[in-house]
Design brief:
Number of domains of chain B: 2
Order of helices and strands of chain B: EHEHEHEHEHHEEEHHEEEEEEHHHE
Oligomer: heterodimer
Low-confidence stretches of chain A: none
Distance between the termini of chain B: 33 Å
Distance between the termini of chain A: 30 Å
Largest interface: A-B, 24 and 32 residues
Helix content of chain B: 25-40%
Shape of chain A: globular
CATH architecture of chain A: 2-Layer Sandwich
Largest sheet of chain A: 5 strands, mixed
Number of domains of chain A: 1
Structural class of chain A: alpha/beta
CATH class of the largest domain in chain B: Alpha Beta
Number of strands of chain A: 5
CATH class of chain A: Alpha Beta
CATH superfamily of chain A: STAS domain
């Protein structure tokens, strides 16, 4: 999984490219924690290039959301692919991790 | 389960002479070796044989060696040795976090290659510690198998079966059931991740769910149990998807709670099939979650089928998955045969996750098979 980030006006966009699984999940947790520690607690994770997520990957997203909220911010996900959306719906985690069509829209309401 | 001494290797190399040489050297070192002539065949071989060591040529006819390495790292923890004929590439590579464990310049001497392989395995672990870890793992697998329900359910009018195939020695999936005066309690769970950590969470979940069996009201029982499990999981950053059901044998009524599992299906004797939606997140995933109890009616000939996501992963969509589960359930002589057909939906050679299935079938004639 390749991770990169870019600080925008009101949030930091993290791009995660590759399969989000047991191998890559700890990397995402660490990466997001690093971005939050550097001062950006409003995070959008762009999952446009993440075709697959397993339970460890879901656990990483939940962990990252908790870290962002803990720091007074929030974490939202964007450009979610079908398999990832399916996992979110099966587990009812779509109620907590709402998917947005684009990174711009994720914090568009506030 | 292979013996602790058996080590496997995959050689990904397009030059048949060099491939043959590498295979010979590794066989002499006691490896069971699979050769592959290009990147895609190599990835498939690693997936199929789960090797301890991979040698990877940087210049392959189809894919870039670095890309192959990246893909392998997504699912394999094998040592990867990269081979390249170009010195300048080697310099670049060593400064790069490609995921490989070592790099060797071609041409190489068999002796140098041998000692590099030995060094890799020595660096990581001593043979004694390795054998001990392996034997612990095998024992853990046996313990986990022994925690699955052993006795055949003698429930009037029902045929109940389960099957569990872990992707490693131990897994995060489990199921459990026990008979009660008026029927059967059933638990199906999938702990986040794989391996030993997931297996420990699964065993804890089993024990906690059993501890609430005499709480008469399902809703209360689940609340008490999930609270206990969630408090354990919170510090771990882990969670467990949990389906728990109470079957009333006389009426065929099933009361159930689904916490983030979403892979239980009511397969009718006719053409109806319905996937039961989860009532909330997995236990431990999100604080202050609540789960609504639900109910379904098993008519004679109907089945309640619960599977793990290892089976779902074999299908491109939920619709395809649902149709395949229905197909695998209908026209089977027994619940046990249905379980086998369900596991076969995710062939063991390609599956990366645990695969588990439980089937509760209400018999059409009302008699026990």
């Amino acid at each position: 999984m390749e991770l990169s980030y870019e600080v925008k006006d009101s949030y930091a966009e993290i791009r995660a490219a590759g399969r989000l699984n047991m191998v890559s999940a700890p990397k995402l947790r660490e990466f997001v924690a690093g971005v939050v520690a550097s001062g950006s607690s409003r995070i959008v994770v762009n999952l446009g290039e993440t075709p697959f997520m397993d339970s460890s990957g879901l656990g990483a997203l939940i962990g990252c959301l908790k870290v962002a909220r803990q720091a007074g911010g929030d974490l939202r996900i964007a450009v979610v692919q079908p398999q990832v959306q399916m996992v979110l719906e099966l587990t009812s985690m779509d109620r907590v991790l709402t998917a947005y069509a684009s990174a711009d829209e994720a914090f568009g309401d506030d | 389960m292979p013996s602790p001494e058996l080590r496997r290797a995959v050689v990904i190399e397009d030059d048949p002479d060099i491939r043959g040489l590498l295979i010979r050297i590794l066989k002499k070192q006691g490896f069971e070796v699979t050769g592959a002539g290009d990147g895609l065949a190599g990835i498939a071989a690693v997936r199929a044989t789960k090797p301890d060591l991979v040698t990877l040529d940087l210049n392959l006819p189809d894919l870039d060696g670095l890309e192959v390495c990246k893909q392998l790292r997504e699912f394999s923890e094998a040592f990867i040795i990269m081979l390249t004929a170009r010195m300048d590439e080697l310099d670049k590579l060593t400064g790069l976090d490609s995921g490989a464990d070592d790099y060797i310049n071609k041409p190489f001497s068999p002796r140098e290659f041998q000692s590099r392989v030995n060094a890799l395995f020595r660096r990581s672990r001593t043979p004694a510690a390795d054998a001990q870890a392996q034997s612990d793992l095998i024992h853990a697998g046996e313990v986990q198998q022994s925690l699955l329900p052993k006795e055949k359910v003698q429930l009037e009018g029902f045929d109940v079966a389960g099957a569990f195939r872990p992707s490693r020695a131990v897994g995060g999936d489990f199921y459990d059931w026990y008979e009660m005066p008026d029927g059967l309690h059933l638990t199906f769970a999938d702990a986040m991740g794989k391996g030993m950590g997931a297996a420990l969470v699964a065993a804890t979940t089993r024990a906690v769910m059993r501890s609430v069996r005499y709480v008469p009201d399902l809703d209360t029982a689940f609340k008490v149990a999930s609270k206990s499990i969630a408090s354990d999981l919170d510090a771990l950053g882990s969670f467990v998807t949990l389906f728990h059901a109470r079957v009333d044998a006389a009426s065929g009524t099933v009361h159930y709670v689904d916490a983030g599992h979403g892979l239980a299906l009511h397969v009718g004797a006719g053409s109806e099939v319905r996937r039961l939606k989860s009532a909330g997140p997995p236990v431990g995933a999100w604080p202050d979650s609540r789960w609504q109890e639900a109910e379904l009616q098993l008519a004679p000939g109907d089945s309640l089928v619960i599977v793990s996501d290892g089976i779902l992963d074999a299908f491109p969509s939920l619709e395809d998955f649902t149709a395949a589960v229905q197909q695998a359930t209908l026209n089977q002589p027994t619940a046990g045969a249905t379980c086998a057909a369900l596991l076969a939906l995710a062939p063991a050679e390609t599956a990366e996750d645990d695969a588990t299935a439980v089937v509760v079938r209400r018999l059409a004639g009302g008699a026990h098979p």
